[in-house]
Predict the structure.
Amino acid sequence: MSDKPNWIVDGSDWPNRAASRFVEAAGLRWHVQIMGEGPVALLAHGTGAATHSWRDLAPLLARHFTVVAPDLSGHGFTSTPHWRRLSLDGMSRDLAGLCEKLAIAPEIAIGHSAGAAILTRMTLDGLITPKLIVSLNGAYLPFGGAAAQFLSPLAKMMALNPLVPRLFAWRGRDPAAVHRLLKGTGSTIDATGERLYRRLVGSPGHVGAALEMMANWDLHPLGRELPRLKTALLLVAAAHDRAIPPDVARRVQQSVPQAQLELIDGLGHLAHEEQPARIAGLIVNAAERAGVLTVQQEMSN
């Protein structure tokens, strides 16, 4: 899928642009932002998003960590692989290839929505060995019942029709439509955030990759394997999340004995964009408990 966002035009005022670089790895050209110093924190955004999702949170985390935040395969300014690679396993392997190229070993993995599933899949497969995984409204479990039987074939049909991403992108240029889409997640974000999402969903290449990802997504194996996860896991669930209800985090906590659940009021699916300082505080505290950050490191910051 062509018609990807253009870095020169669409990235001219991209958040934290000074931290951006482009890296060739796993057969893809990645856009990745790197900032800060300290233990490596690998950030993975959710479906249809990009590094802009971390625009306010990443600088706060960079006070404590070396933050590595890529646009995932096919998203934002990262090139798009063959559509079959836009699966949970494929995207996990591609992201592992980027980590290898950057020669990083994340000590903490922070994922939003589908990004949490990717980082957990990587951990279970031994592709990364973090001391802590932080799930921000993590999309760990599949839709159930008739919804699953309907949504996956529908997404596949839409993804393989070249007209559909263009139709979505055309609709995505309407500010009112994007505002309704974001409000539908249970979150209220600022005008800058809405403008950046509008820029992305106005790109047929970005939309096409998100649809292809949805078409290939299968969370059933991950759900079955969660009980063997030994890594510390913090599940941050927002009470007003209309995309991933807090009950998902509660069910995951039952499957992972060492998991800790932090239920936060007043926020929705994009909680880390609504109140980044609040989320940063939760992450730093969890990193201290997990031994990712030491007292000496915190004193130096």
In short: The chain has a mean pLDDT of 89. The longest strand covers residues 28-36. The first helix runs from residue 57 to 61. The domain at 17-146+218-300 is CATH 3.40.50.1820 (Rossmann fold).
